[in-house]
Amino acid sequence: MPLIIVVAGIALLLLLTIKIKLNTFVSLIIVSIAVAIASGMDLNKVVTSVESGLGGTLGHIGLIFGFGVMLGRLLADAGGAQRIALTMLNYFGKNKLDWAVVCSAFIVGIALFFEVGLILLVPILFAIAREAKISPMFMCVPMLSGLLVAHGFLPPHPGPTVIAREYGADVGLVLIYGIIVGIPTFILCGPVLNKFCQRIIPDAFKKEGNIASLGATRRFSESEMPGFGISFLTAMLPVILMAVVTIIQMTHAKSAADSGLFYNILLFLGNSTIAMLISLLFAIYTMGLGRGKTIPELMDSCGKAIAGIAGLLLIIGGGGAFKQVLIDSGVGQYISTLVSGMDINPILMAWGVAAFLRICLGSATVAAISTAGLVIPLLAVHPNTNLALITLATGAGSCICSHVNDASFWMIKDFFGLTTKETLLSWTLMSTLLSICGLIFILLASMII
User: What residue range is the signal peptide (predicted)?
Assistant: First the structure.
């Protein structure tokens, strides 16, 4: 019965969002309440469970997202993201544009949400394509693989950050393992897969694309852009702070850790929220005050950035509510009990559930958060499971098979002038392979770590 309730809940969510076209956040709340009632939860506890899930999820990640999106906006508005992309392109040269683009997208993608990074990088790619006299499609798959790896595997992106907190994983450790797993993944699914795509959809690589829907896009002159070094440092500072502190934690003796003031200060600075705040303050200077901008100008950029994620935060909160209902209603525990005797690897379980939900729902973030509600009870049966790898497996599963129920599918189709078939054989194929490669590298890592 609980399995039927979950499937029915997912079907209802699809009906509300796709057929009726109801707002995703409202749909998630309706489905959460419906699943709770159908599961026999006390009516007095239904709303409490929904509020607890929504508030608990946003309470964990609201500050990180807020600081992160402001940092990304400052980097973009100052020309720092464009500087990173152009420097990488100049370094690799015309013959290796795919490698330049995938590296640029990965670096920029750490600081920017997927959709923001896509809208920022696409005009740059089109300008480079015109100068090189090639189709922008030659750089499409590498760019998307770099952005998607950052989106699915690395904090401070929504999915990895939320599920790391839900599972109780160390965010810094997720970041380090995510980079280790992510690099070979985006290489295989970017430059390598790009060669294969050129053979199976050759006509797509003759198209010029169309980004008129983006309107007038800002192109910075050489003198307007900050230097590569400071742009790179600004984008990567959150990663550096969290990674350094995590490495120190892994190598520092426990007894000394309990008594060392310096060590405890490092832990404070490496906390994901504090690391993002420090990075934001650094960006305000390097991308703003240090370049002659005023505080009102910078705060205007930050305000616009925050306004842009309001809808996303509500959807994430709705996903958290659905997750909590699955736990409080006992559905997650039922599924955990059901599979505990099957000796299923929890990494495979997390990946499989996330992949199924992603294919059904279209949203990687909602799929990842909802997966936590089904997987958390299973972790009690496998207490020695590496929580950072479970987080990455969930993130990898949530990246799979982006198709017609995902807004990104249509954005990419329109920007690059592709047919639906060509989009399926490029973007959908890449996202599926990226998810599977990510899983393989995570399983390999679990044998070593």
Answer: none
